[in-house]
Amino acid sequence: MTDSAAVLGIDARELAGLTGVDLSEVPPPAAPEAVDAAALLWEARRLSAAQAQHIAELARSMRGDGAKGHFVNLPGS
């Protein structure tokens, strides 16, 4: 619940109330990964469709499952 709430940018207790989920205890803080994902999604809203497609292709190529190859020269690699 907390990670989903973080990605949506709302408090976990508010999300629980909106979805009808009964929280038996105070939710812990959101995981740092969820907070980072929320920030990334918020900033990505400014990208054009072509830019978002390029980023998606680059991410797939970095994972090794993209159809098109992109090579990234990272410092120290």
Number of helices: 4
DSSP summary, beta strand count: 0
Strand share of the residues? Answer: under 5%
Uncertain regions spanning at least 5 consecutive residues: none
Distance between the termini: 37 Å
Question: Briefly, what is this?
Answer:
The protein is an all-alpha fold.
Report on the architecture of this protein.
The structure is a single chain. This protein is mostly helical and 77 residues long. The protein has one domain. The protein is 56% helix and 0% strand. It contains four helices and no strands. Helix 1 packs across helix 2 (12-19) and helix 1 (2-8) packs parallel to helix 3 (32-44). The termini are far apart.
Give a quick set of tags describing it.
77 residues; mainly alpha; 56% helix; elongated
